[in-house]
Specification:
Belongs to the YajC family. This is Preprotein translocase subunit YajC. InterPro entries: Preprotein_translocase_YajC. By secondary structure, the chain is of the alpha+beta class. It folds into two domains: 51 residues; 52 residues, SH3 type barrels, CATH 2.30.30.30. The protein is 47% helix and 25% strand.
């Protein structure tokens, strides 16, 4: 038997773990640093979109501020000023604006 055959016969199992181990560790790090936080953000955004109701003040992805006048499963009608009403997809809402009331 040659030197390479002896090395393959004696240490084959340890080499596979040594090769696969860093890839498994890298996947675990990517999961906790990238995938899991993104899933939490997506879940929070979907919850916010489901909780929208008529009268909420929102900002669209494009930065337009408005008040919800009508809302359905996939369409939102925003009042931008006293006259202008614009129709958007529900998914184009970036976030809801919470106003702080003065107690004076």
């Amino acid at each position: 038997m040659s030197h390479f055959q002896l090395a393959a016969a004696s240490g084959g199992g340890g080499n596979i773990l040594g090769l696969v181990g860093p890839f498994v560790l890298m996947f675990v790090v990517f999961y906790f640093l990238l995938i899991r936080p993104q899933q939490k953000k997506t879940k929070a955004r979907n919850g916010m979109l489901k909780s929208l109701k008529k009268g909420d003040k929102v900002v669209t992805i494009g930065g337009l501020h408005g008040t919800i006048m009508e809302i359905s499963d996939d369409i939102v009608v925003l009042r931008v000023n006293d006259v202008t009403r614009l129709t958007f997809d529900r998914g184009s809402i970036s976030h809801s604006v919470v106003e702080v009331e003065d107690k004076d």
